[in-house]
Amino acid sequence: MELDVYDLCSDDLRKKLKAPREGSSNVSGESSNATSKEGVVPDKEMHLTGIYNLVAVLTHKGRSANSGHYVAWVKRESANRAVDGGCTPVNIAPIEKSLLEQLTTGKKSYFMRYITDLRRRLICAQEELQKYKTQNPQVRVTSRHMSEDPFRDLWGDAMTTETVFVELCKGINGLDKVVLREVRGSSAEVYLYGGQVTSWKNDHGEELLFVSSKAPFKPPKAIRGGIPICFPQFGSHGLLEQHGFARNRFWSIDPDPPPFPTTSSNKAFVDLVLKHSEEDTRIWPHRYEFRLRVALGPGGDLMLTSRIRNTNTDGKAFTFTFAYHNYFSVSDISEVRIEGLETIDFLDNLQDRQRFTEQGDAITFESEVDKIYVSTPTKIAILDHEKKRTFVLRKDGLPDAVVWNPWDKKAKAIPDLGDDEYKHMLCVEAAAVEKPITLKPGEEWKGRQEISAVPSSYFSGQLDPKKVLQSSS
User: Fold this and answer.
1) From residue 456, how far is each of 232, 297, 298 by CA, in Å?
2) Alpha-carbon distance 375 to 363, whole Å?
3) What is the pTM for the complete model shown?
4) Could you tell me the end-to-end alpha-carbon distance of the chain, in angstroms, rounded to an integer?
């Protein structure tokens, strides 16, 4: 059966179709079925004429494309397979001439959704496939050969897609990294050096973490930005180097991780492990296993879970402090405020860790800040006025929260931080600092954080911080 849709086209499209129709020696539409020896329609036969070999018709009744009822009529009488049309299952019936006339004359409330020649559709699909690959590098796309079921190939778009949830590849300076992707488009990057998250993007491709433009990505120097792991020491209060050594070590992908609570739908995650080495025991004489899971939730939330176990064989306990040193990307530090730490005690690192109580309704920034808030709530909100975005930090097993921004003078003294980059970063860190954690041999500690980024309509003085925290429960 053939169908000429010329009379159904717009005036502009008719003008485009007129020349090839008049120049065609076979206006009956047979030329659209001509094939080469390889079974592919030659380019010269690909000129649109508006005449098609009718294979299938998909009609729709409803107020919008994603509601209502789809019905498919197929050329093959033997077709009997129902296909999901996006809302209700598609009903299948053979094409009848009387029905076709009703559809094309507009006497029914259906409208024609899809009419095409199968071979033409397959060729067009290859062009779409290549375009799709270019625009969506995070998705693995594979072609299907034409099957014996024309209905399946026609509505299958001649392609299938498979999201690559976890990918090991090379990053800056050839360092190994793991890329996590969720089907909606969010992503995260984790470098094995430092076990460090260096990128977290939402489903619009917007970067949510700050990484310094001067970060060298050259061991043994730590990476400035992302989410460094501070272990077994936070800060410089101890015998070890600043923030300990975990962020300066090469981690391994854990081949046999312990069970982690997770949902079956969560496929974008990686398990890393760091174990004691001879180098470590020279500066910190303990045996340990540090297991880290980094995961992306279905909604794009970023989750980090740490498990640290004492594996000493000499019966000795060890003590450590810890932090997820989160660097959030913000529009302008002067337009940011933190909610959830009101009336909380803090240790001020700029005043020899003296203890004070937060007096303001919210934390805002006008100068350098370096504070350790103790015994904090499990949820904290970071509101970015200009970007109208709110970060919600949830934490478990991490009673403290560190807030840091170096401001202009100190930023200029930090070699791997741009002079003005302090304006676009804010560290709010889930931590266990005030009261160090002690583990006996065989004991394990777990600390978890989850970060989400949600749109907010924050304007100064108009937001109740409790509502933000409650709505993100």
Assistant:
1) 36, 20, 20
2) 17
3) 0.66
4) 59
Sign of the Cα pseudo-torsion (122, 127, 128, 132, in order): positive
What is the Cα–Cα distance from 101 to 333, expressed in whole angstroms? 65
CA 262 → CA 33, 189, 432, distances in Å?
A: 52, 20, 24
The type of residue at 329 is S
Tell me which residues are annotated as active site: 325, 429
Tokens 């077709």 sit at which residue? 79
Please classify residue 323 by burial: count the beta carbons closer than 10 Å to its beta carbon, then call 0-12 exposed, 13-18 middle and 19+ buried. Answer: buried
pLDDT, tens digit, 9 for 90 and up, residues 10-51 = 677 677 777 777 765 443 334 333 333 333 333 334 456 666
